[in-house]
Amino acid sequence: MTALERIEAHDKLTGAARYAFEYPVEGVAYAYAVQAAAGKGTIRSVAASEAMALPGVVAVLSCENAPALKPVDDGELALFQSRRVSYRGQLVAAVVAETLETAQEAARLLRVEYDAEPHDVRLDVDHPTLYKPDKVNPVFPTDTEKGDPEGAFSACAVQLDATYTTPAQHNNPMEPHASLALWDDGRLVVYDSNQGSSAVRDTLAELFDVEPSRVRVVAPHVGGGFGSKGTPRPNVVLAAMAARVTGRPVKYAVPRQQMFATTGYRTPTIQRVRLGADAEGRLDAVLHEVVEQTSTVREFAEQTATPTRVMYRAPNLLTSHRLNRLDVPSPSWMRAPGETPGMFALECAMDELAFAIGVDPVELRIRNEPATAPESGLPFSSRNLVACLREGAARFGWEGRVPAPHASAPAGRHGLGGREMRGMGVAAATYPGYRSANRAAARREPDGRFTVRIAAADIGTGARTTLTIIAAEALGVDPSRVTVEIGDSDLPKASVAGGSSGTAGWGTAVFRACQAVLAAPEGVEVTVDTAEEVRAQDDYARHAFGAQFAEVAVDADTGEIRVRRMLGVFAAGRIINPRTARSQFIGGMTMGLGMALMEESVMDERFGDFLNRDLAQYHVAACADVLDIDAVWIAEDDPHLNPMGSKGIGEIGIVGAAAAIANAVHHATGVRVRDLPITPAKLL
Ligand code: MOS
Question: Which residues form the Aldehyde oxidase/xanthine dehydrogenase a/b hammerhead domain (predicted)?
Fold first, then answer.
């Protein structure tokens, strides 16, 4: 395979690559937003005279004067359209000024009065607002049931019944949610940090009631998204509205302090998992019931139990999701939504079962390998979980592990052997192989080079580079002869960089366009649409799989946990670019480390809103936390996927990583922590 370095690497390192906030533009003004100070209620008044009196203030926007927007599905985008306050931290007003500092100071001078009402932000399993959503994201059944799960479980020789909780977690991309908007003769141009310019274009066209062809969204480089930029967020609406009202180009970047309430987060979850097995660990019943939250503004139903529908053979299987509709900011997409919290619970439960019956945790998973997808009964297009587990066990030195937990600890708490307890853990990973319909164009240039155009997004993944390789392979030329243009809604319409579907979805369109252009005359651009090809694909269960291994050292005195080693082995179809693929995998695993040990957004029940405001209060894993981390993969040749034979790789790296670490912590200490993150206090 071609191991190609990122095409834009030099531009990024030298600063030549521009991000949304960095585009130079004449006459620009800056916006700064005001967040609701009430947990729920209505806005009584907005007094703007003091703010307006500050020299350099151009405009104040709020429910009292904002232009009307057309309603769209996502209620979070109805910026300043009502006096209603749905949660603390919601954007209720904004100031536009000549400088960012002036806008910030004027925002402080705005007097917003509220008629407050009691708010409720507490996630609970027996909450009065608990309800069953019609579906879970993106289009999965809310509940599934096969056989007689309750009856079978109660008849099982071995019964594990455990509840796991995961906290709210926030994506913290390096580049903030930033937008520069300008209206030019009724046409809206937006430089915006997003995961899909076509989708942002369509939503803005709807909101501002203009033809999609009159809106252009430009985003050639994006400094991370992880899902939080997967759909347009209020920032781009604010920039476009402010530009419209003032007649000036307006820049708006969400400060990290305001991000926690306004750009989405992963819902906290409460998950009850029941595993019923025989004495050898063969599963007869698997029940996975999830309670999570959504806001009153927008329903977001994380698909937390869906991985349980594909993981293990069990004749009796039940999955369910219930939502609390609370006075909280709307949850949204965060890397491997569903699989990430769901597989934390399921894979910790598998580990607990393994210890309960004395079967090796790797062997337990192999023993429960299904022949077909457990819930749907569909054949897998390919499934190499067992190969991943075996390969990982061999590479990680799993055989040398002492099976009993807490075995490495010295006798007594402060024994002579040192204060460190070591343990190893394993967990499985899975992620669906999605593919969306896309359009792409290709042209042979007079100098023999090729240009490929598609409104794909590179959010740091290496998508531009990977698409170049795919095009070069289809054309039978060296990648250096191909230019791929992405990140602009004026290019052929593309799906978002989400659901790990980019390479499969965009790649299919790029591949087909390149095939077609080989037969076309020079200079003629050929455009293809893969809607039909995607619709016509056969019924297979398409999923990537993986095995995560972790070794931890726990300080017996302080409970401090260091992850000594992590290894991920993945089966994700054909890997197009090993260089960027490895980065994707270890990036996901690093995020899983953060999830296991650090990441936690704390809801303030008294006032509403998350207490976290910055990276000092929301800890993400940094380089020093990652001592020895590696990712490898099993060669998969799967003919049922797409012309490249690839599965998605952007998200599976995080799946199971937290469970592997939690299981290693248990192995090291004998303490089973079922509530993330595993902080020292929970071990002492
Ligand atoms: Mo990813 S959370 O599907 O952008």
Answer: 14-118
The encoded tokens of residue 374 equal: 């457990």
Q: Is the shortest distance between the CB of 281 and ligand 1 below 6 Å?
A: no
The pLDDT assigned to 186 comes to 94
| Global model pTM greater than 0.95 | yes
Quote the DSSP letter at residue 66: P
CB 498 near ligand 1, within 6 Å: yes
Give the distance (Å) from ligand 1 centre to CA of residue 228. Answer: 8
> Which residues have a Cβ under 8 Å from the Cβ of 165 and sit 6 or more positions away?
268, 269, 270, 271, 674, 675, 676
Query: Could you read off the pLDDT of 518-562 as tens digits, one per residue?
Result: 999 988 999 999 999 999 999 999 999 999 999 999 998 899 999
Enumerate domains of the chain plus CATH numbers.
13-118+172-262 (3.30.365.10), 135-168+266-433+540-682 (3.30.365.10), 436-535 (3.30.365.10)
How far apart CA 182 and CA 439 sit, in angstroms, is 27
pLDDT confidence of residue 418: 55
Using CA atoms, how far apart are residues 251 and 33, in angstroms rounded to an integer?
A: 12
pLDDT, residue 417, reads 46
What amino acid positions are annotated as catalytic residues? 651
**C-alpha of residue 230 to centroid of ligand 1, in Å:** 6
Ligand 1 pocket test, pick from 194, 335, 459, 503 with the greatest ligand atom count within 8 Å of Cβ, gives 335
Q: Determine the residue of 177, 651, 652, 655 to mutate for testing ligand 1's pocket, defined as the one with the most ligand atoms within 8 A of the Cβ atom.
A: 651
Is the CB–ligand 1 distance for residue 79 below 6 Å?
no
CA of 649 to the centre of ligand 1 (A): 11
The Cα-based distances of 218 to 193, 197, 452, 542 in angstroms read 8, 7, 17, 32
- Predicted confidence at residue 408, as pLDDT, reads 67
How far, in Å, CA of 368 to CA of 386, rounded? 10
Q: Whose CA is nearest to atom 4 of ligand 1?
A: 227
pLDDT < 70: residue spans in the chain: 1, 408-418
Here the ipTM equals 0.97
Is the minimum distance from the CB of 648 to ligand 1 under 6 angstroms?
Answer: no
